[in-house]
Amino acid sequence: MTTTASRPRPAWAERLTALPRAPRRLGAHPVPGGVHFAVHAPHARDLRLVLLDRDDGAPLAEVPFPAGSRFGDVHAMVVLGLDPDRAHYGYRAAGGALLLDPHARAVPGGERWGERPRYRCAVRADGADFDWQGVVRPRIPTEDLVIYELHVRGFTRSPSSGVASPGTFAGLRAKIDHLTALGVNCVELLPVFEFDETDNTYSHPDTGEPLRNFWGYNTVAFFAPKAGYAADPSAPAREFKELVRELHRAGIEVVLDVVFNHTAEGDHRGPTLSFRGLDAPAYYLLTPDGAYRNLTATGNTVNANHPVTRAFILDCLRYWAEEFHIDGFRFDMAPILARGPDGALLERPPLLEEIAQDPVLADRRLIAEATDAAGADLLGRFPSYGHWAEWNWRYRDAVRRFLIGRPGSAGELATRLVGSPDLYGSRGPLVSVNHVTCHDGFTLADWAAYDRPRNRDNGEGGTDGIAENHSWNCGVEGPTDDPGVNRLRARQVRNALLLLLVSTGVPMLLAGDEFGRTQHGNNNAYSQDNAVGWVDWDLAERNADLVRFTARCLRFRQAHPALRRPRHPDGITPAGWAYPPVSWHGRRPWEPDWSDGSGLVAALLHHRSPDGAEDTVFVAVNARPDATRIEPPPAPAGSRWHRFADTAAEPGRDAFPVGEEPSLDSPASLVLDGHSAVVLVAHPADPSPERS
């Protein structure tokens, strides 16, 4: 036992005994009579356990790993007489910096949001005895899934949220009613693993105020929930479990955005937090001369396919799946996970295969961001092993390009509407996570209000963020009182939402798009812990008509199997069907216009279930400024067309409740106003006037 200079050694430390004991698992775990510690550290000399004061992290005592405690590359011992709740801990090698345990289940020291953290590790995470109250995971069929991407702090941090604990897991829990009323059934949370929000080198250009790393894509501890997101900072794990339990009770799945491509340790300049001090060559991609490869634009790149790192990532995913009942994971910059030790893409990345085939993760969702900062684009080619899905950025760009009138965009929009068979033909459309917006880029309202990003407040000279946004300001840059411009913007937002929710594949909405959330033109709000990055809930009341429109579109999607197919629809008419699964039309039936100048796409989506029930939906969208008259194909025999949605109609009549759609005044013709979309649904012919 070694004392420390900062504080007298406590009496209980005198009674501790360290004995070698083989590791069954890494990390710190209570055992009868003490605590077992095991850490992978093949290059560490004179490795010591450092016991720390629970209140301020001051060193209390150091316990050297005894002779015989090295088992291969793992140092393991049991410390008898140690109460796991009496002290926090870290490691120190050869008198160096204090190191965090990579497998620590709890990492105190960063409870106060915005203050520089003083991290250390706790043996026991709060919530170990958590009562799930019999609530089980929803296990929603993928064809029924609707994802809603949100940032835990930003979702309720604004005073307008009206919650008791804004910016926390508890605050999000208070908004579950909004999610269920809207009709989404899966939330995808931006990073919730412990991160350091003060780790940002940029300052506001006017005030000089330090900016935050608000989004949290700089993980410090992979097994610990973010303490600064807890209303009770002493119990983040328990509070996060309460959130997951109540989301599950409401029928909502939970997907975590996870960052395994880089860590918060940066490059050779540091900081050194854990991995670098324990085994940098195993955890990071290094050049032959020992420099850190920077394929992520963050300073380091995780050596994801090294056996030690593969095991670490799998341990982490299993832990969140088992301990927190998480339903799935979205992997940031996932091509990094397909790279070998030299940084080149591997033909068969072992990590991706192991994740896909892991028995614990077999029923969890795996979603890849199929591009990375080094230029890899694996969209449609990501090694899926029958399990991985992908964020489909080509869907995003196709919808945007068509709706702003870009030449040559009609054909690609059609391909994206039916689940991108050019990308996923053999895998099916349900691996395509369709989205028009996400945390990266403009919000939907800003996409219709800005031609250029307004990122000056990020302190990077306005050079950051996505360069090509395929946006259109509808005639005026930014906010305006012009009623015509505002009507057009509202119509464009509805067009995008409507197309998203009638497309084959899995739709994903960005939080707040359902009521016109704005970031005031900032398309990279990663550093904006303020009104720019926070959801303004006053807009939910101000734009209640848009919330209603979105909710009705979501219920319409759930009511129609023609929109939720597990296979790509084709143009072949099966025996007994009135129409093929998909057919394309134009101003007249069966005459689509795929020319470069086309601004009209019209599709008839038809489905016949095994019991003979038919479902028929007609979608038409006009990207040109002038109104156009089209002739829809006839509704199937015994039915007639009813109008579900018309984005040019006044609020309240822009979309109708399922089953209450009025019949089409003139079934033989349909007028699409400029920049508008219409959706029709076939209902059995009903002579009664109530349906008109």
Automatic annotation (TrEMBL):
Organism: Thermobifida cellulosilytica TB100
PANTHER family linked: GLYCOGEN DEBRANCHING ENZYME (PTHR43002)
One of the Pfam families matching this protein, by short name: Alpha-amylase
Keywords, alphabetical: Transit peptide
Family: Belongs to the glycosyl hydrolase 13 family.
GO biological process, alphabetically ordered: carbohydrate metabolic process
Positions in coiled-coil regions: none
GO-annotated molecular function: isoamylase activity
Domain of life: Bacteria
Keyword Transit peptide: yes
Protein name: Glycogen debranching protein
Phylogenetic lineage: Bacteria, Bacillati, Actinomycetota, Actinomycetes, Streptosporangiales
Boundaries of every Glycosyl hydrolase family 13 catalytic domain copy: 149-557
Disordered: region residues: 455-474, 649-668
